[in-house]
Amino acid sequence: MDDSNSVKSTYRAYDPIYDKVAEISTLIRAKQDFDGAAKIALENNITLEEIVNKTMKLGIFDIAKLADHINKLK
Fold first, then answer.
1. Helical H segments across the chain, by residue range
2. Of 27, 20, 46, 19, whose CA–CA distance to 70 is shortest?
3. What global pTM score does this model have?
4. CB atoms inside a 10 Å sphere around CB 69
């Protein structure tokens, strides 16, 4: 009996947005570069909701400041 089909994978499918969100998070936390982070978000059509859902590293004030910079660049 082959049980290979009954085993469920615990790995998520690769999502390239995670890499961009990590880049956004690093720009904000390490360099305080909100304009650079906002540009990445806009260029890749990444919403604030996606950023919040995919990172635990940014605080509410960082998210609010990023939102201001995104609005400024639109």
1. 16-31, 34-43, 48-54, 60-73
2. 46
3. 0.80
4. 19
Cα separation, 22 vs 37, whole angstroms: 10
What tokens does 70 get? 């995104």
User: What is the rounded CA–CA span in Å between residue 59 and residue 74?
Assistant: 23
Walking along the chain (74 residues) 10 residues at a time, the average pLDDT comes out as 51 82 97 98 97 93 98 94
The CA radius of gyration of the chain, in Å to the nearest whole number, is 16
pLDDT score recorded for residue 10: 55
Q: Domain extents for the chain?
A: 16-73
Nearest CA-CA partner of 50 in 27, 36, 40: 40
Are the C-beta atoms of residues 17 and 51 closer than 8 Å to each other?
A: no
pLDDT, residue 14, reads 81
